[in-house]
Amino acid sequence: MKTMIKAALAAALFAGVAGALPARAEEGKVALDLTTLTSPFWTSYHRYVMEEAKKQGVEMLEPFNSEFDTAKQITGVQNALALGAKGIIFSPFESAAAGNVLKAAEKAGAVVVAVDVAPDNGPVAIVVRANNIAYGEKACHYIGEHVAEGPVVQIMGDQASINGRDRGVGFRDCITKNYPKLKLLEVPTKAWSGEDAAAGLDALLNSTPDLKAIYMHAGGVFLAPTLQTLKRKGLLKTTGEEGHIVIVSNDGIPQEFDAIRKGEIDATVSQPADLYAKYGIQYVKEAMAGKTFAPGPTDHDSTILEVRPGVLEDQLPAPLVTKENVDDKSFWANQL
């Protein structure tokens, strides 16, 4: 049924833009898709995008919130194209389904820049993203250096998203290769659900009370339910306390920084919400003017790679944040 609904929505999307001129867009309004507004990461990203649009002189349509729902994402794009959008910035949380959005936008003469999540295929002008496999590897090495042996768990993002898959693979392969004394466990979630994370962790702690470490794929949605679950079970010990569970996260939101300062978690990978916004706007503006992009180094300390045939990705830096550098003013979470 879900597949049939997606197919019907995709057909409606194509029908809705069939009369649009396929001419290259040199100027025009830009539509912004927001994955969710329940995560501090995405609310911060939203703010940064609107600020960057003003700085760079890009006219924005009212953003739409997909709420981790592919049908809502397709409908939002359809509405944006009907309103004359010539550029779209979106985050295809279901990577395989993104093709419908990309093809419809191309048919309407609109360019697309994907931010944070890469589609499985094109046409897309460019993807603005960090290396998510490296996220998992950074978490793995931090945990491996601070836990000698025992069970560790990764609370996983949705596996329909390449971000969830990449972070999982990076962590899993690194643990297996480098830390054989660590026993890897996994808690799956659908649509990056905090409820799934809490329920899965609760069940795991019932069977594995000696858990040594947790890797959360996304602090924006998993931090609060994870800490609440540990606190309810009497297992939330701060760094240095006996029984402290080492916790590493992803996102780099202010709430994670506060948790690091309190000693509730140990580290997080700072996804560059500010740079996602800056270069998302810059690339969509340039693509609307007809510019194309090629693999190679950029002028902002990153590299554009061809990650799949026809899919270019500007891989921005995403540093590890610990108690040692959590107050560094260069992190976007310390600038809000």
Describe this structure in words.
This protein is of the alpha/beta class. The chain folds into two domains: 2-129 and 272-317, Response regulator (Rossmann fold, 3-Layer(aba) Sandwich); 132-270, Response regulator (Rossmann fold). 42% of the residues lie in helices and 19% in strands. The chain has ten helices and 14 strands. It has helices at residues 2-17, 40-56, 70-82, 98-107, 132-146, 162-178, 194-207, 219-232, 254-262, 273-288, and strands at residues 30-34, 64-65, 87-90, 111-115, 126-130, 150-155, 182-187, 213-216, 246-251, 267-270, 296-297, 303-308, 311-316, 320-322. The strands form two sheets. The protein has an eight-stranded mixed beta sheet, sandwiched between helices. A hairpin with a 2-residue loop joins β12 and β13. α2 packs across α10 and α5 runs parallel beside α6. The longest helix is centred in the first third of the chain and has 17 residues, at 40-56. The radius of gyration is 20 Å and the shape is elongated. The termini are far apart. Mean pLDDT is 90; it is low at 1-26.
Based on DSSP secondary structure assignment, what is the total number of beta strands? 14
Distance between the termini: 43 Å
Helix and strand pattern: HEHEHEHEEHEHEHEHEHEHEEEE
Structure classification = alpha/beta
CATH architecture of the largest domain: 3-Layer(aba) Sandwich
Q: Any idea what the CATH superfamily of the largest domain is called?
A: Response regulator
Report strand %: 15-25%
Task: Give start-end ranges of low-pLDDT stretches.
Answer: 1-26
Query: How do the strands of the widest beta sheet line up side by side?
Result: 2-1-3-4-5-13-12-11
CATH topology of the largest domain: the name is Rossmann fold
Give the helix tally.
10
Signal peptide: 1-25
Organism: Prosthecomicrobium pneumaticum
GO molecular function: carbohydrate binding
Protein name: ABC-type sugar transport system substrate-binding protein
